[in-house]
Specification:
Layout (H helix, E strand, L loop, with lengths): L4 E4 L5 H10 L5 E4 L2 H9 L5 E8 L3 E2 L1 H9 L3 E9 L3 E4 L10 E4 L1 H6 L1 H5 L5 E4 L3 H11 L4 E5 L1 H6 L3 E4 L9 E8 L12 E7 L6 H11 L3 E9 L7 E8 L3 H14 L1 E9 L4
Parallel strand pairs: 1-2, 1-3, 7-8, 7-9
Antiparallel strand pairs: 3-4, 3-11, 5-11, 6-9, 6-10, 12-14, 12-15, 13-14
GO biological process, one term: L-phenylalanine biosynthetic process
Protein name: prephenate dehydratase
GO cellular component, one term: cytoplasm
């Protein structure tokens, strides 16, 4: 049984919504201001799991989070996709023309750029967390200030939604992963997706060879992300997600990839959420 789950942000954040969906409404949360803080809580055994956003369908990958999982030898044990609906909210009794400043997470601001081009009088200011801004507006009774946050945040902090679903692309989805210290609770039979990390020699065709092995073993590549190795200029680590129909196909691929790739690591195997 999971004793506590760390999230980046506070109640009402999108990470909170995912934690509720994955672990149930009674989940015990540890609210953290950063992903580093959330991971430290896991390493220090204050929590049993971390909910961590990895990529967004509009803004792309959150690369530092790949590095956090890899550096600390953590394991992905599950994933969750969340339809992200950004709402503009403020204290009741105001309209959009009354709003002078909007504070939100940089990712949320990026996803809503087109909306604010229509309201040039509003100043956009980056902040740590979407829900924390909503909470601050209510706690400090800030007028003329709005947050971009979830419906849950509006409900929890009793704010009025001035504009619903203001994200530029209406189908806006974020992939979150559930991260633990080990992969002990993932049974092989129930898994059909895996996250891998490896490095390659800097020579022609090395990546193509690896991808061919995956294809020959009937693995379906769903994601590939390169990350530069800071200590070795122009060398890259690759983070790859694959799906498979049978675990034996995955095992066959592993036996080959472990020989062919440098610093090969399975970051986790789990059930595909799609």
């Amino acid at each position: 049984m999971t004793k506590a789950v760390a999230i980046q942000g506070i109640q009402g954040s999108f990470h909170h919504i995912v934690a509720k969906q994955y672990f149930g409404d009674s989940v015990l949360l540890l609210e953290c201001l950063s992903f580093d803080e959330a991971v430290n809580s896991l390493l220090n055994k204050e929590t049993d799991a971390v909910v961590m956003a990895l990529e967004n369908s509009i803004a792309g990958s959150i690369i530092p989070n790949y590095a956090l999982i890899d550096t600390h030898d953590l394991h992905i044990v599950g994933e969750q996709y969340l339809d992200i609906q950004h709402h503009l909210m403020a204290l009741s009794g105001q309209e959009i023309q009354d709003i002078k400043d909007v504070y939100s997470h940089p990712m949320a601001l990026l996803q809503c750029k087109a909306f604010f081009k229509k309201h040039p009088h509003i100043k956009l200011i980056e902040d740590k967390d979407t829900a924390e801004v909503a909470q601050r507006i209510q706690t400090q009774q800030l007028k003329g200030v709005a947050a971009i946050a979830s419906q849950l945040a509006a409900d929890l902090f009793k704010l009025e939604i001035l504009a619903k679903s203001i994200q530029t692309i209406q189908h806006n989805e974020t992939r979150f992963v559930i991260v633990k210290r080990d992969n002990a609770d993932s049974s092989n039979e129930a898994t059909n997706k895996a996250s891998l990390k490896f490095e390659l020699e800097h020579k022609r065709g090395s990546l193509a060879t690896i991808l061919n092995v995956m294809s020959d073993c009937q693995l379906n590549l769903t994601k590939i992300q390169s990350l530069p190795k800071i200590e070795t200029p122009w060398k890259y680590a690759f983070f790859v997600d694959v799906t498979f129909d049978t675990y034996s196909n995955f095992q066959k691929a592993l036996s080959i990839l472990e020989i062919m790739a440098e610093d090969f690591k399975v970051l986790g195997h789990y059930k595909h959420a799609k």
